[in-house]
Amino acid sequence: MSTVAAERGRARIHWGRLARRHAWTAGVYVLLVGLILYWRTIPAQWGTFDVQSLAIDALPFAFAAMAQAVVIISGGIDLSIGSMMGLVNVVSAKYMFDATTAQPVSFREAIVLALVLIGGAALAGALTGLIITVTKVADIIVTLAMLFVWGGAALAVMQIPGGGTPLEFSKLAIGYTLTPWLPSGLVILAAVILLVWIPIRRRRPGLALYAIGSSRNASFLAGISVARTRIGAYALGSALAGMGGLALTATSGIGDALSGQYYTLNSVAAVVLGGVALVGGVGGLIGPVAAAFVLTLVKSIMILKGVDQNWAQVIQGTLIVLVVMIGGLALRQRGKNL
Amino acid sequence: MSSAPQAAEPSAARFDVRRLFSDNPVAVLTLVFVGLFVVTDIVNRVQSSEAFLTPKQVSTTFLYAAILGLMAAGQTLVMLTGGVDLSVATTATTGAFMISSYATDGAAKAIGMALLAGLAIGLVNGIGVAIFRVNPLIMTLGVSTVTLGALTIYSQTRFLAPAPDIVKKLGSERFLTYIPYNLLVWLPISALIILGLRYSGFGRMIYAVGDNAVACRLAGVRTWQVLLAVYALCGLLSAAAGILLVGFNDAADLGIATPFLLPSVAAVVIGGTSIFGGVGGYAGTILGALILTVLDSLLTILNASQAVRQILYGLIILALAAIYARAAAAD
């Protein structure tokens, strides 16, 4: 501990750099707070119900955003996130529901199944990463192919929506902890960030993740195993997508092979809005999570304002396109300044 | 029986095949197409004791392939520049919707509106990619989502008539017994694209931009104009595919073109066009479209579910992309 403290002491804090690095994320949080303040004024009686429904809507999206963020930081992109979520969704809903007795399985069995599925999703992601590193085919092509492989597998598991889940498992996502103002979904998100992401980021694998996203050649020359880190990034991303799939099961109570289809694009949009550069090596997971809440909230506000559901979808999509266009423009400006 | 020459021979033969494949993919793909057709014929004879290798089925294969071929044509142009267009299916659906909603105003206006809508979507994609430098995949996926949402609203508010007779005829009928009318659309466009890519300045520019956009820009090429034009063309071609599709299906619905999205990418990848741009051409894509159409018939004969098809398409793209990547690395 003393060496860490000594190092901290030696390293001066570059306030300017700190501000520049986190300005975008901070901006997203300011936007989120602004939206929440506005959102509070719309319903006649804004309260715990609204807070909980926002958390329920945003939970799978937030996991998708985190999954995409990890992969994009490593310099790749994963188009199969949505279908991986759909696959985990149908498998969990199918096996958390005992068809012979028409009853959900016990909570304990559901948790074991959930952990197995997260592990399975991580393995599937590792496979994707392995294919990318071995065949040297572009990330986009491999993950596009995997999008269809997982999507097809999900359809094979469950052709029409069905299945179920124990109420206690649903409560993990739709219930609340301690006070009705604190939805359990938020607690789970915070736990994943604090217990999974922060430890990884602070250690060598996290450093390697950012390094290969920044420059693969330089990382290789610095002695980082680029292939292993890329595989690890896809595995971690896929595990997070698996959690997103479980979140879909918990929040909707059923399995639907197509439930994940919007999350591939939305996750990329949340990542861009959340301050992760598409070229890799820049950003974190906290920003994309906030961005997922912003995008969900924009849609909820529109629906509360009486905008038709389909129109809300169109407007949200247009906003996403505008966000990535402005992001592209920012990248271009930065390129000019260099 | 010394083992040395035996070992040398197959490796030499394998080298030649790979060489042939990378030098002349079209010849190899033609062989694959014919081979697949024969396999389908055998499977069909076994299953239902009916031949598949008949003039009628060949004609049907071309009839189906024309729609995919047109969608993959735009995709080829875009992929030659190093991009990808994931909005081709919804653009085709938009074209089909325009035909249905303007059917009562006459075929000419309906076709005009369909092409115009396709051009507009293509231009939006192009503006995002060329001017705002958005990743093509994200831009086109986003535009596709928005378009689909808009079509959903549109379909709720507007009466959709069946397609005009001339569009139906174009999309589903044949002349001289065996020749589908839609080849009258597909063949000239194919010739134009193949020749245009090879001989026109714009065609060469597409390859150049795909090969090295920065070098192009430094050499004085207005890269953004090339990209804008390519995405606009892709929109136009996708709308044309949508016109043939609604002619084939009679009426438009929201999911009419969805099954073509992945095959449009697959056809281009099978045809040997690199996802990184600069390498490939439309001739390969045509064969890719034909191969996928026969494969689809084979899967139908084998009673494969949608799930199996989807997985298979994914694996085919993966396998071919890997083969091409290896061939490129060997050069």
- Rounded mean pLDDT of chain A is 86
Helix content of chain B: over 70%
- Number of DSSP helical runs of chain A: 14
Distance separating the two termini of chain A: 39 Å
How many E strands of chain B?
2
Percent of sequence in beta strands of chain B: under 5%
**Mean of residue pLDDT of chain B?**
87
Number of domains of chain B: 1
How would you characterize the largest beta sheet of chain B? 2 strands, antiparallel
- Strand numbers in spatial order across the main sheet of chain B: 1-2
Shape of chain B from CA axes? globular
Strand order across the largest sheet of chain A:
1-2
Structural class of chain B: mainly alpha
> Could you state the order of secondary-structure elements of chain B as H and E?
HHHHHHHEEHHHHHHH
What do these coordinates show?
The complex is a heterodimer of chains A (338) and B (331). Helix content of chain A is 75%, strand content 1%. Chain A is built from 14 helices and 2 strands; from the N terminus they run ααααββαααααααααα. The longest helix of chain A has 29 residues, at 107-135. The radius of gyration of chain A is 20 Å and the shape is globular. By secondary structure, chain B is an all-alpha fold. Chain B has one domain: Orthogonal Bundle (ABC transporter involved in vitamin B12 uptake, BtuC). At the A-B interface, α6, α12 and α14 of A face α6, α12 and α14 of B.
